Amino acid sequence: MKSVVFSAKSEYGRFRKPYTTTSALTFLCIHPVAAKGLIGSLMGIDKSDLYEETKDLKIGIEVLGEINKDLQSVKLLSLKNGMFHFPSNIEFLRCPHYRFYVMWNENKLNELNDKLNVGEWEFTPYLGVSESIAKINHEGMSEVLKVNKADFVNTIIPTKNILPKINLNIKMYSDKIPVKNNSNREYIEYEKIVFAEKNPLYGEISSDDIYQVGGKNVYFF
């Protein structure tokens, strides 16, 4: 098996929690559903076809940057009971930076690798919102090796699959993120995940989904 590896970063990003409305909160990191959308933009996959085209895509997500949030005040336009503006606070992630590990069928994986190598995208890639245009860096294609026993992971991983080892010198974060959607683009499955900021997460890992890619231990969703 092989995996295409690339990274993406931007000055700001936002991955809105769907249960918020006027006060838009963001997840702590990009989630697998949004990552598939990012890959779809690189490949030129229409959003109406994205679900079917990426059903067999497996994705690992490594958080490379610090977790910082900014709260920005914006004016929203209401169309109910007449048009009027009202203020709202919206969370943004500051300087989000991620590395993605992609496993897919051979033809699509090669096509993605070629597009990343050339650096020409079908649609403009962004991190959550169209204003947060992403800078993409192609890191290549690597062999994927199954890991039978691991004591650390470099990517986000469901909390049910790891008992983290506490290290006071490393910041750890946890969030509940969407990991699957349906053909109507609705989130249908969530997982509580954990990751360490800019560091591997050590602990007791119980999962069959850990693979080694370029020296990194990766959990694939």
Query: What is the multimeric organization of the chains shown?
Result: single chain
How do the strands line up in the largest sheet?
A: 3-6-1-7-14-15
Percent of residues in helices comes to: 10-25%
Secondary structure tally, helices? 3
Shape: globular
**How many strand segments?**
15
Largest sheet features: 6 strands, antiparallel
Termini Cα gap: 16 Å
Order of helices and strands: EEHHEEEEHEEEEEEEEE
Structural class per helix/strand content?
mainly beta
Radius of gyration: 18 Å
Give the uncertain stretches in residue-range form.
none
Describe this structure in words.
The protein is mainly beta. 13% of the residues lie in helices and 43% in strands. It has three helices and 15 strands. The protein has helices at 32-43, 50-53, 106-118; strands at 2-9, 12-13, 58-63, 69-78, 84-94, 97-103, 135-146, 152-153, 157-158, 162-164, 172-181, 187-196, 201-205, 210-213, 216-219. The strands form four sheets. Strands 3-6-1-7-14-15 form a six-stranded antiparallel beta sheet, with helices on one face. The chain has a three-stranded antiparallel beta sheet with strand order 2-5-4, with no helix packed on it. It is globular. It starts with a strand and ends with a strand. The model has no long low-confidence stretch (mean pLDDT 92).
